[in-house]
Amino acid sequence: MDSLSQIALGAAVSVAVMGRRTAVWKAALWGALAGTLPDLDVLIDQGDVMRNMVLHRAESHSLLWLTLFSLPFAAMVARLHGERGLLRRWWLALWLVLVTHPLLDTMTIYGTQLALPFSNHPFGVGSIFIIDPFYTLPLLVGVIWALATRGSHRGSLDNGAGLLLSTAYLAWSFVAQQQVTQIARASLAQQGIAVEHLLVTPTPFNTVLWRVVAVAGDDYHEGFYSLYDAQPNMAFDRFPRGNALAAELQDIDGVQRLAAFTKGFYKLEQRGSRLLISDLRMGQEPNYSFTFAVAERHSPPVALTKPEQLAVTLDIPRSLDWLWRRALGERLAPPR
């Protein structure tokens, strides 16, 4: 999730666990800090833009490493405030803050390597967009009210209510995802599309309008479904995956990494003299958040010394207008 959501979640969890045992500002401050610590791995240069992408949410998001880090971190905080008698409570609070960060990230589609060092599998439920105000606002309101009332009983209840509402929203997102998945599978079967991999994930800032990507042979199919649609069926547009380029690019390290990281949701294409790979999970046709130039067209292709990430060109007003209208159930062709 975005940094604001992680800060709000960290502060809310810490305030809830510490209660009135310490000043509410201390709990909120250290919870917010611990809530954003795992994402500081973005400051580490892994060598190139593709490695930076696939190695984000790696060791710093490991449940084991965060658990081991939580005790000395809590000891430092307790000693700093002269609250050594509260060490166990600080440890519980900060451990919960640290581990809920990657667990929340896992609800997005990006991919979080929770099980390191035992497995580098990128877990991603994909039921919530990386920025969703309906998740974040209850947390912010609860924490702000707790701070404003200096940890009063009412403030503590409101902070807990914010946590409860945000967690319920996460649960709702998963339920909605399963509903759309059933509709997508039925629609694909009716259209005779044999699906190899299916992706169902929300469009930006909401859990009402969902994007579906179905990989089938040499093509992938993209469709959208709103919970306000009058009929439980979907239309899909078909696009080539560029499988003909796979043999030429299969030995390039970045291609191998991204293919594994996306679990098969990628496409290959040639633009001019450059050969590209795109992550199909984030964005929508033809604009993707992660598109990389990996080689130049020669015979055979020559891999670039370092991959280059292409900038996204997006008509934001037009895209937001389509998003709003399509979410409300108006059957509109997506902007291309």
What would your notes on this structure say?
- By secondary structure, the protein is an alpha+beta fold.
- The chain has 2 domains: 3-173, no CATH class; 191-317, no CATH class.
- It is 45% helix and 17% strand.
- It has helices at 3-18, 24-36, 49-54, 63-80, 87-106, 133-148, 153-190, 246-249, 253-261, 316-327; strands at residues 197-202, 209-216, 219-226, 236-240, 266-271, 274-279, 283-284, 287-288, 291-296, 302-309.
- It has a 4-stranded antiparallel sheet with strand order 1-2-3-4.
- The longest helix has 38 residues, at 153-190.
- It is globular and about 70 Å long.
- The model has no long low-confidence stretch (mean pLDDT 94).
Summarize the structure.
This protein has 10 helices and 10 strands. With 336 residues, the chain is of the alpha+beta class.
Q: Can you give the mean pLDDT?
A: 94
What's the helix count? 10
Helix content: 40-55%
Using only CA atoms, what is the Rg?
22 Å
Number of domains: 2
Poorly predicted runs: none
The rough form would be described as globular
Provide the succession of SSEs: HHHHHHHEEEEHHEEEEEEH
% residues in beta strands: 15-25%
How many strands appear in the DSSP assignment? 10
Termini gap: 27 Å
The profile of the biggest β sheet is: 4 strands, antiparallel
| Protein structure class | alpha+beta
Lateral strand order in the biggest sheet = 1-2-3-4
Oligomer: single chain
